[in-house]
C-alpha cells in the first residue's frame, strides 16, 4: 500500500483502528487514516464500503464501536457533534426551511455568540464566497438545487470549522452543474485553506478534486494516495477495476497483470508490431463499437497459461486499425502501462 | 372524471349526500318559528337562536366542553410529542410494538376506558369529575397526537436536525429552534383533531358526568330526551358555525393541505 502524501505539520484528523459495527454487519473495519491539514481528501468507494459511516463518525453522528478519532490532536472519539466545530454539508443539503438563507448561514454564528455586526459581516462573506450574496433574504425553498448546495457550503464554512465535511455533495445535481461545482468546491478549498473531507462514489470526481484519495471497500481502506499515484499504480484488483482498468490477464502464477483499454494496442495479425512488452497475445475480434472520438474493440485472447480472457481496447478513431469481428489480431501492452496486481484475496 | 369513472363518481356524490343532507335538515329546522322539531318548518324566525344563547345549561356546558377540549388537546400534545420523538428519533428496541401500544386507546372501547376511570379515579381516588374527564379525554386524544406528530416527523429530513447539531446546537436547542418550528403544522393539526374529537365525545363524557360538570353534547342528549323544541337544532347550527370559523382560520393561517397532509401516511 502506498501512502505518500506530501503533508506537512500534524494531520487535521486521525482515525486509529476505528471500527463501526451495526449488529452483525461491520461497516468500518479497523481503519487507520490521516486527514492531511489544508488539503482535500476524498473517501471513494461503492455504496456500502464504509465511506459515509467513516464521515459520520468523524462528524460525531456515530460513535465508533472501537478505536479512536483525533481531531486537531484532541481525542474526539466520544465528543458530540455540537462540540466538534466541524462544518458538514449533507447530501440532502438539510437547510432550515423556516429560515432565510442569511439566517441559515448565521445559525452557527449565533450559537457561537458572535456579535451582530461581526455576524452580518461573516454571513455576507460566506455567501459571497459561494456567489450567492444577492439571495441572502430568500427562503431555501425558492432556490435551485445548485444554489441550495452553495448555501449549505456557506453555512458550514461561516463557522470557520476545523474541517469541512461533504457527504456526496454533488450527487443530487445534474451533470453540467456537477462539473461546475467540482471546480467551485476546489476553488473554495484553496481560497479558505480548509481541510476538506469529501465522500463520493464517483471516481472521476475523486480524481479531479482530491489532493489525497482514499479508496474503500467492505469497510477497509484499499489504497490511499495522490490521485495520479493511485491511478497509475492501483494496489489490487478492486482498485484497478474501480478506476477503469478493464483488462485483467492472469500471469499463470495466481497473480494478474492489468492495463487500461486506452493502452492496449491491437494490430492486424498480418503485420504484427515488434514485441516490446510483457504482454503479447494473439486474439480474435468479438465486437467493434464506433463511438465518434474513439473505437471500442472487444477481443478474446489466449493467455500464456491457456486461459481465454476478454480484453477491451479503446483507440482513437483517427488511427484505429480497420478490424471486423472474427479478424485475428495481435495484442500488445507497453510495459510502462502494465500494472502487476497481487493475487486476489 | 365522471364520464371516465361513473361508479366512483356516483359513490362520491352519494357519500356527500349522506353526509350533508341531515345537516341541511337541522339547519333549516333551526330557523323555524314553530315550537317543535318539525320539517318543513311552520314559519321562519331567529327566536330559537336567542333561546339557545339564553339557555343556561347549554351555555355553562359549552364553557365546560371548551375547557375540557382545550386542556385535553394541550395535555395530549405535551405527552404525545415526546413519545412521537422517542419512537421516530430515538433508538428504541421494539419500536413498532411500542407504536402499536400507544395507538391502543383507539381500539379499546371508550365505555371500557370510561368505566375503568370511573372506578379507579372517581371512586377509588375520589377525584372530581373534571380531572377524571380530563384524564379520560387526554388518553383518548393521545394516539392522535402521537400519530399526527409522528407522521410530520417521519416526513422531516433527519439531516436537518443533524445539521443543527453540527453547527453547535445542543439536542435541546435543536429541538426548540429546528424540530419544533418544522413540526408546527403537525402540532396544529394534532391539536385541532384532538380538540374536535374531545368536543364531540359522548360515551366518556356521559359516563363521567356530574351535576356540576357536564359537556355540551351530554347536556343536549339529556335535553332531547325530555324536550322536543328546536333549541337543539339552533345550538347545533351555532356549533357548526363555530367549526366553520375554526376551519377558515386554519385554512388561512396554515392551510388545510398542510394540516391534514400530516395524517396521510
**How many beta-strand runs of chain B?**
0
Q: Report the sheet with the most strands of chain A, covering strand number, pairing sense and barrel closure.
A: 6 strands, mixed
- What general form of chain A does the structure show? elongated
Uncertain spans of chain A? 1-7
Low-pLDDT windows of residues of chain B: none
Question: Tally the helices of chain B: what do you get?
Answer: 12
Q: Largest interface by residue count?
A: A-B, 27 and 17 residues
Gyration radius of chain A, to the nearest Å?
24 Å
Distance between the termini of chain B: 25 Å
**Can you say what the CATH homologous superfamily of the largest domain in chain A is?**
P-loop containing nucleotide triphosphate hydrolases
- Classify the secondary structure makeup of chain A into a structural class: alpha+beta
Mean pLDDT of chain B: 83
Strand content of chain A: 25-35%
Label the CATH architecture of the largest domain in chain A: 3-Layer(aba) Sandwich
Keywords:
heterodimer; A: Rossmann fold; 2 domains; 25% helix; B: mainly alpha; MetI-like fold; 76% helix
Short characterization:
The complex is a heterodimer of chains A (345) and B (265). Chain A has 345 residues and is α+β, with helices and mostly antiparallel strands.
Description:
The complex is a heterodimer of chains A (345) and B (265). Chain A is of the alpha+beta class and 345 residues long. Helices cover 25% and strands 32% of the residues of chain A. In chain A, the strands form four sheets. In chain A, strands 6-7-8-3-9-10 form a six-stranded mixed beta sheet, with helices on both faces. Chain A has a five-stranded antiparallel beta sheet with strand order 13-17-14-15-16, with no helix packed on it. Chain A contains eight helices and 18 strands. Chain B is 76% helix and 0% strand. Chain B contains twelve helices and no strands. In chain B, α1 crosses α11 and α5 packs across α6. The longest helix of chain B has 34 residues. The radius of gyration of chain B is 22 Å and the shape is globular.
Amino acid at each position: 500500500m502506498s501512502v505518500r502524501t506530501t503533508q506537512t505539520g500534524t494531520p487535521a484528523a486521525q482515525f486509529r483502528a476505528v471500527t463501526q459495527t451495526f449488529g452483525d454487519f461491520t461497516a468500518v473495519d479497523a481503519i487507520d487514516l490521516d486527514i492531511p491539514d489544508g488539503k482535500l481528501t476524498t473517501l471513494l468507494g461503492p455504496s456500502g464500503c464504509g465511506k459515509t459511516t467513516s464521515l459520520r463518525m468523524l462528524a460525531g453522528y456515530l460513535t465508533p464501536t472501537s478505536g479512536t478519532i483525533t481531531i486537531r490532536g484532541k481525542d474526539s472519539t466520544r465528543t458530540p457533534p455540537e462540540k466538534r466545530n466541524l462544518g458538514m454539508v449533507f447530501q440532502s443539503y438539510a437547510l432550515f426551511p423556516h429560515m432565510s438563507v442569511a439566517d441559515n448561514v448565521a445559525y452557527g454564528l449565533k450559537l457561537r455568540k458572535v456579535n451582530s455586526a461581526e455576524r452580518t459581516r461573516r454571513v455576507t462573506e460566506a455567501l459571497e464566497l459561494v456567489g450567492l450574496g444577492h439571495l441572502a433574504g430568500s427562503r431555501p425553498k425558492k432556490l435551485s438545487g445548485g444554489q441550495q448546495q452553495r448555501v449549505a457550503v456557506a453555512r458550514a464554512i461561516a463557522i470557520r470549522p476545523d474541517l469541512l465535511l461533504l457527504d456526496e455533495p454533488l450527487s443530487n445535481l445534474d451533470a453540467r452543474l456537477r462539473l461546475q461545482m467540482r471546480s467551485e468546491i476546489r476553488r473554495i478549498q484553496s481560497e479558505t485553506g480548509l481541510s476538506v473531507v469529501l465522500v463520493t462514489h464517483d471516481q472521476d470526481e475523486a480524481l479531479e478534486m482530491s489532493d489525497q484519495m482514499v479508496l474503500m471497500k467492505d469497510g477497509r481502506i484499499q489504497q490511499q494516495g495522490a490521485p495520479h499515484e493511485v491511478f497509475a499504480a492501483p494496489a489490487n484488483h478492486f482498485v484497478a477495476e474501480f478506476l477503469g482498468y478493464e483488462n485483467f490477464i492472469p500471469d499463470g502464477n495466481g497473480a494478474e497483470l492489468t492495463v487500461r483499454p486506452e493502452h492496449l494496442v491491437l494490430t492486424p495479425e498480418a503485420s504484427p508490431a515488434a514485441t516490446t512488452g510483457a504482454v503479447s497475445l494473439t486474439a480474435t475480434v468479438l465486437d467493434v463499437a464506433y463511438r465518434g472520438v474513439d473505437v471500442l474493440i472487444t477481443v478474446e485472447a489466449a493467455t500464456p497459461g491457456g486461459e481465454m480472457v476478454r480484453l477491451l481496447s479503446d483507440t482513437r478513431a483517427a488511427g484505429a486499425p480497420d478490424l471486423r469481428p472474427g479478424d485475428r489480431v495481435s495484442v500488445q501492452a507497453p510495459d510502462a502501462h502494465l500494472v502487476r496486481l497481487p493475487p486476489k484475496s | 372524471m365522471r364520464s371516465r369513472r361513473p361508479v366512483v363518481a356516483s359513490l362520491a356524490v352519494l357519500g356527500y349526500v349522506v353526509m350533508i343532507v341531515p345537516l341541511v335538515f337541522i339547519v333549516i329546522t333551526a330557523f323555524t318559528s314553530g315550537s317543535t322539531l318539525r320539517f318543513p318548518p311552520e314559519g321562519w324566525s331567529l327566536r330559537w337562536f336567542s333561546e339557545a344563547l339564553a339557555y343556561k345549561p347549554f351555555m355553562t356546558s359549552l364553557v365546560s366542553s371548551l375547557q375540557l377540549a382545550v386542556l385535553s388537546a394541550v395535555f395530549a400534545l405535551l405527552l404525545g410529542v415526546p413519545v412521537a420523538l422517542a419512537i421516530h428519533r430515538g433508538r428504541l428496541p421494539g419500536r413498532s410494538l411500542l407504536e402499536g401500544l400507544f395507538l391502543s386507546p383507539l381500539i379499546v372501547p371508550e365505555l371500557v376506558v370510561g368505566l375503568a376511570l370511573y372506578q379507579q379515579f372517581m371512586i377509588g381516588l375520589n377525584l372530581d369529575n373534571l380531572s377524571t374527564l380530563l384524564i379520560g379525554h387526554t388518553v383518548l386524544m393521545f394516539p392522535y397526537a402521537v400519530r399526527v406528530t409522528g407522521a410530520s416527523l417521519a416526513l422531516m429530513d433527519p439531516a436537518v436536525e443533524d445539521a443543527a447539531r453540527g453547527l453547535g446546537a445542543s439536542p435541546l436547542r435543536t429541538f426548540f429552534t429546528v424540530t419544533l418550528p418544522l413540526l408546527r403544522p403537525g402540532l396544529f393539526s394534532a391539536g385541532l383533531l384532538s380538540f374536535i374529537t374531545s368536543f364531540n365525545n359522548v360515551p366518556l363524557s356521559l359516563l363521567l358526568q356530574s351535576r356540576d360538570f357536564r359537556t355540551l353534547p351530554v347536556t343536549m342528549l339529556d335535553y332531547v330526551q325530555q324536550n322536543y323544541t328546536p333549541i337543539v337544532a339552533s345550538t347545533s347550527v351555532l356549533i357548526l358555525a363555530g367549526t366553520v370559523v375554526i376551519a377558515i382560520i386554519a385554512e388561512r393561517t396554515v392551510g388545510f393541505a398542510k394540516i391534514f397532509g400530516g395524517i396521510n401516511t
